[in-house]
Amino acid sequence: MSNLTATVVGAGLAGCEAAWQLAQAGIHVKLCEMKPKRFSPAHKNSGFAELVCSNSLKASRIASAAGLMKEEMRRLGSVLLPVADMCSVAAGGALAVDRELFSKMATEKIRSHPNIEIVNEEITHIPDGVCVIATGPLTDGAFADEVGKLCGQRLSFFDAAAPIVTFESVDMNEAFFASRYDRGDGDDYINCPMNKEQYETFYAELVSAERALQHDFDKKVYEGCMPIEIMAQRGADTIRFGPMKPVGLRDPKTGHRPWANLQLRREDADGTMYNLVGFQTNLKFGEQKRVFSMIPALKNAEFVRYGVMHRNTFIDSPRLLCADYSMRERPEIFFAGQMTGVEGYMESAGSGLLAGLNAARRLLGKKPFVPERDTMLGALANYISSAETVDFQPMGANFGVLPPIEPKIRNKQERYEALSARALSSLERSTKEYGLM
Fold first, then answer.
1. pLDDT per residue over 69-80, tens digit each?
2. b/e per residue, 146-173, with b = 16+ CB within 10 A?
3. What domain range includes position 337?
4. Do 150 and 10 fall within a single domain?
């Protein structure tokens, strides 16, 4: 048994990947999991790596954001992807699994590793020494209080986020750059104007659109942030005097103030992604695309993230974490999973893989490994650790987080293929440089 030890708190997807990376590096791991002694409101299965909301791990093809990320994880020694392959079910081009079998096989795999010790206890304090905190989006109670103290209360308990679209998919023939009353630099916002007829058609569809089902533990989110569709039900002009107010703006095409106006705010330093300001929503994803695409400038919009409103404990990672998922001020402590601001099962697992890998490297006296920004794992690590981010919201894998490829490739599928090829070539160079091959 190794003299080097580390603790991983939480045996979800992120915790399993983190524990595996540490154990594979020869570190003795204490993997702490409160189940089956205590369950969160969402979890029912006593096994590890439980999939709660879906059995889909998204697209398999490498020329997709989700597929690229999974391929990067495979090349870095993911423990869960081979398990997923063994219990996959038919799902077209996606990797979907038998959820119970997936959890059972993942649990057996983790339990069988000689360097992993399972501790079935609810942890109420931050462990001493090198540790990875991967307790998931429903972290609560005494441990959430401890995390809050550790993070200086930079902790969000609810995720109320607006959709995000790619800049290149916004129709700038129907939009214009401007700040209200010409304040700021003039290009702080993209404005998406609507005339009276367009707005009334959009409004009618918005208030009647189908909403996502909420769990009881999600509902408190409404107290602090009202969904755009709920606000709209208060009256036809409510959002026109709220998030869609046109005051201080003049549409250069008409020379007049729009009847209503949606503003898009830059989401990243490169200006490749923009969020729909004030459009927090609980509409179903398909309904978001259908209804929000009725705004003329967004008729061909590519949504890299849909709006969500649910219980989601996550930290202010850009102020707290480095790109290797360690804390800036407490480098022996790593975070992983949705707590860091990555969103999605595989994104959580990928963050756990990198957190575990880097926790092991810290114990072994090696420099941190962070894939380059042109990889999907590296781009997400950069996103959650970029101090330039102002209004931090969780993000899943999408091609919008990658640096643009030059010269620009107009055909979307060809562009995605080129981005994926560039990412995998970059990852190969990095892994050789860091001795990970």
1. 999 999 999 999
2. bbbebbeebbbbbbbbbbbbbbbbbeee
3. 5-160+310-433
4. yes
